[in-house]
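Saturday, quiet lab. Running sequence design on the structure tokens for the scaffold JK sent over.
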């Protein structure tokens, strides 16, 4: 596919962007950020805010906020332009970064739940908190196993 930042979006590209947004919005990703992620997936080169605003028909402020949010999710990467305050963005090639961060959060949540279980009298609440902690630790371990498998099979660039 040619670099879409050099032309208007095709119907197929627009559909892809909207489909990506529909998948991400239920996970709590704001609509503009979800659309921007779909857009960045299609871009072969880093894209500046001006181009994003034109192609996605959004305000520059919205594009900036969405791009920074995608950075925090580790889904986008910022590229500075030498001698300028302008920045451009690409989709992150660190596919595992978001899951690695989620693993840290799962560990913290499991620790909190264990602490909560220890602080309440025995009974249904303690059992529920303990079971939830075990569940989150099992999910965390499964994700870590999958990430290790991915790293071992990933072609080295």
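Result came back. Writing it out in full:
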């Amino acid at each position: 596919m040619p670099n879409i930042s050099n032309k208007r979006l095709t119907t197929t590209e627009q559909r892809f962007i909207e489909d990506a947004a529909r998948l991400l919005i239920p996970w709590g990703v704001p609509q503009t950020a979800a659309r921007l992620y779909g857009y960045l997936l299609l871009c072969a080169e880093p894209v500046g805010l001006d181009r994003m605003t034109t192609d996605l028909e959004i305000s520059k402020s919205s594009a900036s906020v969405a791009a920074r949010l995608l950075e925090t999710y580790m889904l986008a990467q910022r590229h500075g332009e030498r001698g300028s305050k302008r920045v451009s963005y690409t989709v992150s090639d660190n596919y595992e970064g978001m899951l690695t961060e989620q693993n840290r959060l799962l560990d913290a949540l499991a620790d909190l739940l264990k602490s909560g279980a220890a602080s309440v009298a025995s009974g249904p609440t303690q059992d529920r908190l303990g079971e939830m902690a075990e569940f989150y630790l099992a999910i965390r371990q499964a994700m870590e196993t999958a990430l290790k498998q991915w790293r071992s099979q990933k072609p080295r660039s």
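Notes for JK: The radius of gyration is 20 Å. The longest strand covers residues 76-80. Ask whether to fix the surface positions before the next round.
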